[in-house]
Write the structure tokens for this entry.
Amino acid sequence: MSEILSFIESNKDRYESELKEFLRIPSISTSPEHNGETRRCAEWVADELKRIGLNNVQIMETAGHPVVYGERLDGGKDAATVLFYGHYDVQPVDPLNLWTNPPFEPTIIGDNIYARGSVDDKGQVLMQLKAIEAHLRVSGAMPVNVKVIIEGEEEIGSPNLDKFLSDNKALLKCDTVLVSDTPMFGYDQPSLCYGLRGLCYMQVEVTGPNRDLHSGFFGGAVENPINALAVMISKLKDENGLILIDGFYDNVTPLSEIERKEFARLPFDQKAFINDLETDASPGEEGYTELERMWARPTLDCNGIWGGFTGEGAKTVLPSKAYAKISMRLVPNQTPDEIAKKFEAYFNKIKPAGITLKIIDLHGGMPAATPIDSDGMNAARKALKQVFGKEPFLTREGGSIPIVNSFTTILGAPTVLMGFGLPDQNAHSPNEKMNLNNFHRGVKCGALFYENLKK
Amino acid sequence: MSEILSFIESNKDRYESELKEFLRIPSISTSPEHNGETRRCAEWVADELKRIGLNNVQIMETAGHPVVYGERLDGGKDAATVLFYGHYDVQPVDPLNLWTNPPFEPTIIGDNIYARGSVDDKGQVLMQLKAIEAHLRVSGAMPVNVKVIIEGEEEIGSPNLDKFLSDNKALLKCDTVLVSDTPMFGYDQPSLCYGLRGLCYMQVEVTGPNRDLHSGFFGGAVENPINALAVMISKLKDENGLILIDGFYDNVTPLSEIERKEFARLPFDQKAFINDLETDASPGEEGYTELERMWARPTLDCNGIWGGFTGEGAKTVLPSKAYAKISMRLVPNQTPDEIAKKFEAYFNKIKPAGITLKIIDLHGGMPAATPIDSDGMNAARKALKQVFGKEPFLTREGGSIPIVNSFTTILGAPTVLMGFGLPDQNAHSPNEKMNLNNFHRGVKCGALFYENLKK
């Protein structure tokens, strides 16, 4: 293994020049004008998979941009099989005028390489490919079986990935999925994300009178839909931040003592957190820390509200309708369907006289969690410790990565989220960057991950 | 007098075509883009005052839209002097898509004319001008002295009228003010309004974090300004409709037993009321009837609310800001300034941690009441009985006509509110309409009012 790590150490310059080549291709998946470039990027990835020594490399068509596949089944029947997933498509670049350097002319300044896709996700894809390459160049074989899929539609919500996974279940059969597309907790703070929240996103329409009324003539004998909506929203949570929807917490997997200890170990700076948001408090469900609340407890937030007169000045209208978008972040073992039904039942229960309700289930996503003592997690923890010289933090994330749930439900495999981004990486924003030290450490971690998985 | 009434009867078609001309001018006083049209409307009114035979007609400038003045002092020193007040400006028209016919293309369907301003207040202004015209055309003189002011800022709270009244106290000296800007209790139910509610109209801006956040990453440790605003709104009233602002009821003049008996005599049909609004209840402050609540008790209504994502679909934003327009209807002896201060103090008191508040006092109007045995009231009661063939009801009204209070305090004259609108007239809403039978009866009542005032 030390030979492999030396190989990696001595190839840094080459990695950086290959990364620049990858980053120069403007593979903006949402932009039809860039379809040619996105296709060219898929071809570049296919060539790269062949270059590093993968077999059976294919550009596999979907209804949208293709998935690039490659494999190396050196490990044999008894060895673990890892499916590495990444994406070669990138976000749009506007507002272009806020970029210091052109987004598709990768520029190294200090420890960072700046370019669209540098961290999300081309840099992290390439580091994993370089990890495989190192094994194959030095020892001629992978210690376990490896399959690779690099898709081209992650930035538009992976609309064709579920079908691709279902259609190619046998080809993609694996024990562990490896994804490098998340940030670390901080620089020199290696972390492994093992849990993601799900989502249940509802829209409510509250109707009072059948038309807008004069608030002077009618005020006092008509239910006002805005007031009614406000009262109903106020009844969704109590003063301690507990969600009051009947049965809401029934299926919530509670945080274990181990998890709470792990989170407590993290250098979360509450003061810096609220200062950055220019607020004076970080309230939430009583009895839990900020990280616990943002990562591992279900929450409820209004995402939008509107109704009545919203222009300049004073219009004395008692409106007919008011609307709100209300979403709930879910944790294992809740499901969006279950929560949507409970939300609807509760909202109807607290509805006052004088109004009618229309409730729409706009969108849902399953929560996900990977067992922290799985083989994949253990291999990743060990790899991070070997490279960074410290035990990685075990973290969760408050957002959703819908493909992780697809891997669980379609392929039946847990996902290891071993990411090397940083919180200030500007993913999706101008001046996206990847820390090159993290890139090179990532190559080593990838190489060690496969070694650690060997039985 | 019978000749005058015949003249009115035979000029209906002309009145309607003149009304259409008046209604075609989009004199939306709150909209700077309509300043040209609002000015054109003032000029139209001045021309009309000359056409009907008034003297000393002037477009009198203010800091905002002008007041149009005219007079006819035929009655001499010993006769009563009536000041007729109306307004030529109208409310905005949004939501435009709910109008069946364009708001400034007056359309007669059945007995109604549909247009913005048809009943509030252009239709009622024109009927009073036609009443004066009938006297002058038939007998060449008015039975009493008449002064007319038609202003252009009623729908934005008449910000310059008090100064105008003060600056022109001598010119406007009068015994009685006549206003036609209120609805009748119902069709064929003539009524005279002796009390109006005041208004205190506030806007609140609630700020949580300094920028829009991802609701997945941050949900659980940041105060959401929409949720916070909803909770604060829910704390403005209790479950029995009582307003919870500290000291809110301190100065409220209670309803007398006589008033409650008068109101109880009125044929208010609760079932028809809620059926018309297509709702199932007419909730409000416990212990009071609908009419008492709408006319003589203070109320609180949200007039508008907005914040976060209000477009199509599901955007998972935890917004930085949320806003609401919240107004309170006041009764004698409350004042807008007093209530604005109490609202602000209370809202700050119930503000949760993690948000900042900005509260703006957008607009205020004093409540008002007129003695029911004044000369003007007696002349109006008689006129209504003569035209409708029945004794009018004595009512109050839930809306505000802040200028009524100005007439009392600045000119020292009581105001007679002889209105000819109807409860379903859609003032301030799409498809505003005026019943044309009421329009023509209004012309006759106006003519008789002056006659009845003659000593």
